[in-house]
């Protein structure tokens, strides 16, 4: 079961605070907008707490967040569990020496980058983003961490779009989500 | 780098110690994104859990009794520092983004770059009249981005209480571009 216990009263509140915006960024897409969740301090705190409760005793030494919405949820988790935070970014944003991982989009390709030296071999890593769709971005993120010698313990997202089967693209790594959207 | 806060009022020794440690974790990358620019890289700060926590704590200690109801973070590095501050002080977090990223109805504010202009956007309805706002970014350079963020908030009749950054590039006089709005930074780089 991917989502955490559905009878946790915090989950219902979190799901209700996510706004669906039709036809964004293009016709036919029902965009899952987490900005409305961020407007409710209690709900935002509950969201972070649910992840922290899961990971605080798992010896996670690095939380990697995917630009840009992974930057909102990753750092609070990292701070609470005493892990370092590593931003995974679009090309040419990180100023130092980087490693790059290319991945496919619906049309074309994109690239995710991580600073060299940010992650050491054998570190235990958590990858965080707001949502998993096809899993392409998360897969690229996992590859970057593994290329640096880290072990990806789990991927964590607020929202999963299960119909897009992103879970299958995570190379057998576990995925933990709070809500599913069909 | 100097502890900027000391110039304004006496800073407790503990604060100075934390600031010195924070300052030491910031990495300077020459000639990024173009020749002649000494880029202040905060990603190395984020690799030190104590330094990162101290950074957030210093802001939280300052703002927790100021009745701040909204923390606005400027994309993308403002998204790293803003949310932990918002969570700790019980404020909402509002992302201020580059064009076409926010999915709902937005208001836009244009601002000038060295060459040309750019825009920042905020969701309509995120901020209410009378909200007391803090604007957060990792660094203030010319102040153009912060100024645009402030204008977005003021256009919806929020009161911008202060702008907060980890780093100030004092030479670029961004502080002056904020007019009467106070700016609080942890480290000042010349």
UniProtKB/TrEMBL annotation, chain A:
Residues 45-167 form the Phosphoribosyltransferase domain. It is found in: Cytoplasm. It catalyses: AMP + diphosphate = 5-phospho-alpha-D-ribose 1-diphosphate + adenine. Coiled coil: none annotated. Gene3D superfamilies: 3.40.50.2020. GO terms for biological process: adenine salvage; purine ribonucleoside salvage. Homodimer. This is adenine phosphoribosyltransferase.
UniProtKB/TrEMBL annotation, chain B:
One of its GO terms (cellular component) is cytosol. It catalyses: AMP + diphosphate = 5-phospho-alpha-D-ribose 1-diphosphate + adenine. It is found in: Cytoplasm. It holds the Pfam family Pribosyltran. InterPro entries: Ade_phspho_trans (IPR005764), Adenine_PRTase (IPR050120), PRTase-like (IPR029057), PRTase_dom (IPR000836). One of its GO terms (molecular function) is adenine phosphoribosyltransferase activity. It is an enzyme of class 2 (transferase). Pathway: Purine metabolism; AMP biosynthesis via salvage pathway; AMP from adenine: step 1/1. Its EC number is 2.4.2.7. It comes from the Eukaryota. Residues 51-176 form the Phosphoribosyltransferase domain. One of its GO terms (biological process) is adenine salvage. Keywords: Cytoplasm, Glycosyltransferase, Purine salvage, Transferase. Homodimer. Belongs to the purine/pyrimidine phosphoribosyltransferase family. This is adenine phosphoribosyltransferase. It comes from Daucus carota subsp. sativus.
């Amino acid at each position: 079961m991917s989502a955490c216990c559905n009878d946790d009263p915090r989950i219902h509140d979190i799901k209700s605070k996510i706004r669906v915006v039709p036809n964004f960024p293009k016709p036919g897409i029902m965009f899952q907008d987490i900005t409305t969740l961020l407007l409710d301090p209690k709900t935002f705190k509950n969201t972070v707490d649910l992840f922290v409760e899961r990971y605080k005793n798992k010896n996670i030494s690095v939380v990697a967040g995917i630009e840009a919405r992974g930057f909102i949820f990753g750092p609070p988790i990292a701070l609470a569990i005493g892990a370092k935070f590593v931003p995974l970014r679009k090309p040419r944003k990180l100023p130092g020496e980087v490693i790059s991982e290319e991945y496919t989009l619906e049309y074309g390709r994109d690239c995710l980058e991580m600073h060299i030296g940010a992650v050491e071999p054998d570190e235990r890593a958590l990858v965080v983003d707001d949502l998993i769709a096809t899993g392409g971005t998360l897969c690229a993120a996992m590859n970057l961490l593994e290329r640096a010698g880290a072990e990806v313990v789990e991927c964590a997202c607020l929202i999963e779009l299960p119909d897009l089967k992103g879970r299958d693209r995570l190379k057998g790594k576990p995925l933990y989500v709070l809500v599913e959207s069909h | 780098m100097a502890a900027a806060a000391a110039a304004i009022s006496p800073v407790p020794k503990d604060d100075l110690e934390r600031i010195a440690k924070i300052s030491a974790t910031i990495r300077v990358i020459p000639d990024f994104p173009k020749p002649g620019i000494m880029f202040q890289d905060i990603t190395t700060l984020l690799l030190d859990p104590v330094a990162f926590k101290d950074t957030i704590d210093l802001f939280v200690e300052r703002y927790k009794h100021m009745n701040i109801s909204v923390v606005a973070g400027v994309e993308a590095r403002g998204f790293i520092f803003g949310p932990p501050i918002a969570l700790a002080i019980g404020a909402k977090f509002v992302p201020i983004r580059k064009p076409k990223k926010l999915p709902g109805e937005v208001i836009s504010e244009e601002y000038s770059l060295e060459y040309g202009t750019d825009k920042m956007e905020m969701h309509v309805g995120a901020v209410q009249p009378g909200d007391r706002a803090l604007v957060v970014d990792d660094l203030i350079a010319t102040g153009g981005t912060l100024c645009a963020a402030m204008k977005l908030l003021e256009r919806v009749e929020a009161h911008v209480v202060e702008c907060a950054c980890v780093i100030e590039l004092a030479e670029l006089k961004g502080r002056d571009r904020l007019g009467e709005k106070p700016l609080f930074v942890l480290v000042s780089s010349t």
